[in-house]
């Protein structure tokens, strides 16, 4: 019987807390298991491929390749795993340079079946959707790609370990440098996510989407009013170079490339009742897009049905004089997109209109606003979105063991259990910046904010086997029930 995304509003009265007695995972015996999308997700979800050096013996399909999946819903035949130095042609074909490295040369290791602790797996027939601000960025274009060209970068390894622990089926990764050619996305997938260790099993995403964003793209205007033209504050979205601190979407399931909608180039002034400051010139009004990074609608094919992943990332409001106004309208865009009469919305193909009625969706990404007035942004617009009847706010909480609460791990703030990011304007303070918000017709079976520790405590080393002192952002996730 075909899988159907849940049609009725059914959210658990009390979200199940993750079991801190970690379940064990097993290794897939065959490479094909990774691409056999079965009716019961748990089988596919725990079918992992042993990491062998910096590159597994498979390649990663781009959104265009994902669209050619066969009628049975399986992934297309995959060739060689793309190495970071592979040439990528305009049509997406890859020319491999050299031979695949041996496992011993890159330090890869096949692990025993009981070696890797993970969070409790989602319930059967559930889809785990997550977002994470990786804070994986460099000062110059090309530097991150160079660092990711082989395993070993410390910050990228920490990010990979977090992803390998939570193991989302769909991941909106923000705060990472990106390029329209998907080279960074593929290099991170190949040389970090796929590479395991004694503690963590590698994870490989056969589908991904990365595209040009507004971050770091020169506007030609003095947007930050510092008297000079050029620099991160004068970009269409804050950044030192195009693609700095952008967004990538990874998926275990095929992406419908022909129906992806990118709203990043939509003019800010096209939004009715927008909040554009009056001191902006006519030129600046004409050139500024609504998105400071990006807004994407990415349809994911899950067991014959479609889930629209509405992914977005925003710049911190303090990076621009008009950052607060723009942030408000970026959040309001998703409310408009869920309405039936918002014809102003225009995508990169020139198609107008909102999301189709009755379409299943989940909003995921970094909105950089807190409903309780924590952090740099005001709360009105995000609070209004979270109260919308069109979606569910799981109000994800930190997955902290009870015995460490109150030890100074989180600020003395009743809202801190929901916080996901450090306040860029107030050292030591945090706020809720990242969200996974399923549509109201879906069922949330579990949700949380994954705690990775900080420099003030090493209590998580024994609990999660990791600590991330440099990146104090936290991954947010929600398990969405699928099936009847």
TrEMBL record:
One short Pfam name that applies is Exo_endo_phos
In terms of InterPro entries, this protein maps to: Endo/exonu/phosph_ase_sf, Endo/exonuclease/phosphatase
The UniProt GO MF terms for this protein read:
catalytic activity
Domain (Endonuclease/exonuclease/phosphatase): residue spans on this chain: 154-454
What protein am I looking at?
Endonuclease/exonuclease/phosphatase domain-containing protein
Name the segments for region: Disordered: 394-429
Organism for this UniProt entry: Enteractinococcus coprophilus
């Amino acid at each position: 019987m075909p899988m159907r995304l849940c049609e009725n509003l059914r959210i658990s009265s009390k979200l199940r807390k993750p079991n801190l007695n970690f379940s064990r995972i097993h290794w897939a015996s065959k490479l094909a298991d990774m691409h056999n999308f079965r009716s019961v997700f748990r089988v596919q979800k725990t079918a992992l491929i042993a990491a062998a050096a910096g590159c597994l013996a498979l390649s990663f399909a781009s959104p265009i390749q994902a669209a050619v999946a066969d009628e049975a819903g399986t992934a297309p035949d995959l060739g060689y795993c793309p190495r970071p130095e592979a040439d990528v042609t305009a049509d997406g074909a890859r020319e491999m340079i050299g031979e695949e490295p041996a496992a011993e040369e890159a330090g890869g290791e096949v692990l025993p079946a009981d070696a890797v602790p993970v969070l409790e797996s989602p319930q059967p027939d559930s889809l785990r959707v997550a977002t994470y601000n990786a804070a994986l960025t460099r000062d110059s274009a090309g530097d991150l790609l160079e660092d990711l060209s082989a395993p070993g970068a410390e910050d990228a390894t920490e990010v990979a370990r977090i992803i390998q622990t939570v193991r989302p089926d769909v991941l909106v990764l923000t705060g990472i440098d990106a390029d329209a050619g998907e080279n960074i996305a593929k290099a991170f997938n190949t040389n970090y996510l796929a590479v395991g260790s004694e503690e963590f099993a590698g994870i490989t995403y056969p589908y991904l989407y990365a595209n040009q964003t507004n971050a770091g793209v020169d506007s030609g205007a003095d947007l930050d009013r510092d008297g000079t033209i050029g620099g991160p504050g004068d970009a269409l979205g804050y950044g030192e170079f195009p693609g700095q601190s952008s967004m990538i979407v990874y998926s275990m399931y095929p992406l419908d490339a022909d129906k992806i909608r990118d709203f990043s180039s939509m003019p800010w002034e096209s939004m009715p009742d927008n909040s554009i400051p009056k001191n902006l010139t006519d030129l600046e009004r004409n050139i500024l897009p609504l998105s400071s990074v990006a807004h994407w609608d990415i349809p994911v094919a899950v067991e014959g049905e479609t889930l629209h992943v509405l992914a977005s990332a925003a710049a911190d409001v303090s990076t621009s004089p008009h950052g607060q106004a723009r942030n408000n309208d970026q959040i309001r865009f998703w409310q408009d997109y869920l309405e039936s009469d918002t014809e102003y919305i225009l995508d990169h193909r020139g198609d107008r209109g909102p999301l189709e009625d009755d379409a299943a969706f989940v909003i995921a990404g970094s909105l950089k606003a807190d409903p309780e007035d924590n952090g740099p942004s005001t709360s009105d617009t995000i609070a209004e979105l979270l109260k919308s009847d069109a979606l569910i706010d799981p109000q994800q909480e930190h997955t902290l063991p009870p015995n460490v609460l109150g030890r100074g791990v989180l600020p003395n703030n009743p809202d801190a259990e929901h916080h996901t990011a450090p306040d860029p304007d107030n050292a030591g303070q945090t706020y809720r910046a990242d969200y996974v918000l399923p549509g109201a017709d879906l069922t949330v079976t579990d949700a949380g904010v994954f705690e990775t520790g900080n420099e003030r405590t090493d209590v998580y080393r024994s609990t999660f086997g990791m600590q991330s002192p440099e990146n104090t952002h936290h991954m947010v996730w929600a398990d969405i029930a699928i099936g009847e």
